[in-house]
Structures are given as C-alpha cells and as structure tokens.
Design brief:
By secondary structure, the chain is mainly α.
Length: 197
C-alpha cells in the first residue's frame, strides 16, 4: 500500500510540474526577443566576416608553407592591407600582395643585405631602385612599396582571374616564378584575420 501511495504522489507531482510548465512555458517561450539583443550580434558577425571564397578563388597550387610571425611582421601585414584599401582594391589583391611579400622578404622590411643582397633589391617586395621602383627610402616604406606593387598589379590584364603565382610573377618578374604559390593559404588567413581589424 505504501508503494501505491508513493507512486501516486510521484505521478501527481510530475503531473503538476508538467501542467505548470504548459501554463508558464508557452508564454515565456513565445515572448519576442528585444531588437537590441539580436541586431548588434548579427551586425557584428557580418561586418567582421571575410568571404574565404573571394580570398582563394582558384584554389591553391602545390604544397603550402607557413611561418610564425613577429609583431613587426604582423604590422607589415596590416600596412599592406591598409595600402590595399587606400588603392581601392579588394581582399584578393591583399592576398596576392601578402603572399608576394612572404616570398620576397618573409614580411620583413629588409634594407641592403650586403653580399647577400639580390642586386639592389630592398623592402617588403624586394623592389629595385635601379629598375624604377623608387628610391631606397621609398621602397623601404611599407605603404609606398605596397602601392607600387599594387600599381603594377592593376596593369596586369585579368589578374583577378589568374592563379596567384602568375599574377605575382607578372609584376615581380622573379627568377623563381612558382614560389609565390606556397604562401597563398597563409596570406588568405592573414587577410581574413586582419582585413576588418
């Protein structure tokens, strides 16, 4: 008899809890969220998001390389992105520029390296004063050197439809034209991370 009474009590309490939830639940569940609690989250998520499809539209070619960056290298990434925006070019142009600088200088603003120098190449993009890129002071300025690179990129017909390595090579005229491709993934990741920062 105690078992039957205990069972009825438990079932009765469970029934009351269920019924109470039915009465209180729908009113709470159907309450409309306030506009303030939804809009800022959605707007922030959309503003900070870079479409990865625009960063690597042709897929990567070959094995990819990656290096850890110092604060100075990250500052150079941000300078390249700022110059790209100033040149009124898109995220893909920034990917091409950053991948090029990764190959040319590992994103270090290099001065003259003495005997290790490739002719008179200097700066992030290893541009040469003797080839008309600018003075040493100009090509070792991250904004100037990026703008010079992007000016060259704009003159390449259809650069947006080319694999990264071909677009970069057309501007840079490197002895190692396929080496730019290995940096595409890291360059895209850097643009995705810093484009809106």
């Amino acid at each position: 008899m105690n078992t039957k009474l205990l069972r009825k009590s438990v079932l009765g309490i469970a029934g009351l809890a269920f019924a109470g939830g039915m009465v209180a639940g729908p009113a709470t569940a159907n309450a409309a969220p306030t506009v303030e609690s939804v809009k800022p989250v959605v707007a922030t998520a959309q503003a900070d998001k870079v479409d990865k499809g625009t960063l690597i539209p042709h897929g990567v070619q070959g094995e990819q390389s990656r290096i850890d960056l110092t604060d100075e290298q990250v500052a150079n990434v941000k300078a390249i992105i700022a110059a790209t925006k100033k040149a009124d070019m898109d995220e893909r142009a920034a990917v091409v520029a950053i991948a090029t600088a990764l190959q040319e200088s590992k994103l270090e603003n290099l001065g003259h390296l003495g005997e290790r120098n490739d002719h008179d190449s200097q700066g992030l993009f290893q541009q040469r004063p003797s080839s008309g890129w600018g003075t040493v002071e100009q090509i070792t300025d991250p904004e100037y050197s990026t703008m010079a690179f992007l000016k060259g990129l704009k003159q390449v017909d259809g650069w947006q439809d080319m694999p990264l390595t071909k677009a970069a090579q057309t501007v840079q005229v490197s002895a190692y034209p396929f080496h730019y491709a290995q940096w595409e993934t890291q360059a895209a990741d850097l643009v995705a991370e810093h484009w809106n920062s």
